[in-house]
Amino acid sequence: MARWQKAQQHLVGGRPGPALEIYQELLKQFPDTARLWYELGFAAGKNLDFVLADEAGQRAAGLASKNVSLLVLLGQQYHWLRQPDRARACFEQAVAAAPFSIHAQLSLADWYERERRLDDAWHCVEACLGRDPKNGQVLCVKALLLQRRGQNSEAETLLRDLIKRDPPDANINYSSRHQLGVVLDQMGQYEEALHWLGEAKAVLRRTANIGKLEQEYDGAVRRRRELLAALTPQTLRRWREEGAATASPHRLAFLGGHPRTGTTLLEQILGAHPEITAFDEPMAFSDEVVEKLAPMKPPPVLTVNAMNALGAGERSDFQKRYFKSLLRENAGEPARGLLLDKNPSPTAWLHLWLRLFPALKVIIALRDPRDVIISCYFQNLRLNAVNANFLSLERTARHYADLMEVWLRMRELGGFDWLETRYEDVVANVESEGRRVTEFLGLSWHPQQAAFHEINRQKFVFSPTYNDATRPVYQRAVGRWKNYAGALAPVQEGLAGYCRTFNYL
User: Fold this and answer.
1) Which are the contacts of 425, defined by CB distance < 8 A and separation ≥ 6?
2) pTM of the full structure
């Protein structure tokens, strides 16, 4: 129908309000169409009406009781809405509707694995293999579960056999090679681990226009660098003075740094404090601020003049939208004391954070740059303009430099409250470094922070590092780069300055 297509066009074009109006009109005529309710829920979520999004999702799930594909989509939508219980229920409903559906079983297995319910995930995989024992996608999930169980030799054998079959599916070719690299790394076979990781990234390069993604990223970095060069200490002081007149309704802290610098570990420690509400990689700032003021693709191009021109009313509106999005997972519950937004990527927009929240407490997590590069290179991330950098060690090192240059420039400008914390200090003494960071936030160390991993076993972790988040602190990742010193040689010179600056010599 033309009206339905118009609603979809509004949604794709980032206009959820007009889309919502059309969906609501259509549902008066077709109240039993599950797909309409699903799309209404997505539009409502984009419009920050999370109550309506939840209601629409439940209506869709009720109407789509036998529609496996839609139930899986609803599970993914509830994941985006940060409602893990609802998401799990949709995946379980899909399996109940079609127990022999590999799509349903694997979707549920992936979810159970994220929740660290490995036995339940294994049951789903075994159900799939009972019907299709050579399914490459299923075997990749089985290999992951074997690795999670510490059965690396079995995972290695399975993955090598799968690679020998040379399946035509690019996703299976990529996943099997990437997982084999991870498994071999854990087994201490570092040279071959790097070989298979390189093969996996070569497969991924063939699935997208990587050159275009790199150009998009490089253009955004160039524009940001020009903006940062134009900032002055006086500008930041003026922002702080202006911000005093439009105080934020919540005490807010930002925990950033480069990905793989221990931000998740620190967020788990801080989040165990009864007076801190910690948020694990929320999209609130990216969705409600960056995408509206400084999207990756221009126009518009954010400038210092444009930031200065943001009036009190506009800044207040951005604050409200940000907090409404951030607090979606606390629906019906009051937010405790201080809100902690942990997300490394928005570190690139620290200047924008300080324009809207000049009283922001900023915590920057540091780690040996060489360990950061290796850890990022090993990550299995969704391909986009930023993550395309992690397809080579050279571009990974460049991304590190780009993000750290933002931090060093903002640190140089000053005019805000900040603290640096080192991953190595955290793992060496959780309480000592945890206490220092907690006190920076104006709070005293609480005894339950020492048992953070026990508390967080009960939580769903959104970070890509969810598998490590509930483990006790370990030190085996410190100095990991030495296993790959030869591969890092071409980028060592470029990293040397950061090693000196952050005292990693």
Assistant:
1) 432, 433
2) 0.94
Do the domains spanning 143-207 and 210-501 agree at the CATH topology level? no
Of 386, 405, 406, nearest in space to 396 by CA: 386
CA separation for the pair 469, 458 (Å, rounded): 11
Cis peptide before 233 (omega within 30 of 0): no
Residue 31 amino acid letter = P
pLDDT per position as a tens digit, 433-482: 999 999 999 999 999 998 887 777 767 777 666 666 556 666 778 889 99
C-alpha triplet 178, 181, 186: angle, nearest 5°: 130
At the fourth CATH level, the homologous superfamily of domain 210-501 is P-loop containing nucleotide triphosphate hydrolases (3.40.50.300)
* Residue 304 neighbours by CB distance under 10 Å: 17
CA quadruple 468, 470, 475, 478: dihedral sign: positive
Measured in degrees and rounded to the nearest 5, phi and psi for residue 280 equal: -95, 100
Q: At what angle do helices 68-80 and 84-97 cross, to 10 degrees?
A: 170
Inter-residue contact 335 to 89 (CB < 8 Å): no
**What sign for the dihedral angle of Cα 43, 48, 49, 53?**
positive
Residue 125 half-sphere exposure toward CB, CA atoms < 13 A: 23
Q: Which tokens go with 330?
A: 């606390």
Class level of CATH domain 143-207:
mainly alpha
Name the residue ranges covered by the structural domains of the chain. Answer: 143-207, 210-501
Nearest of 207, 214, 201 to residue 381 by alpha carbon: 201
- Which of 173, 126, 130, 170 has its CA nearest to residue 145? 126
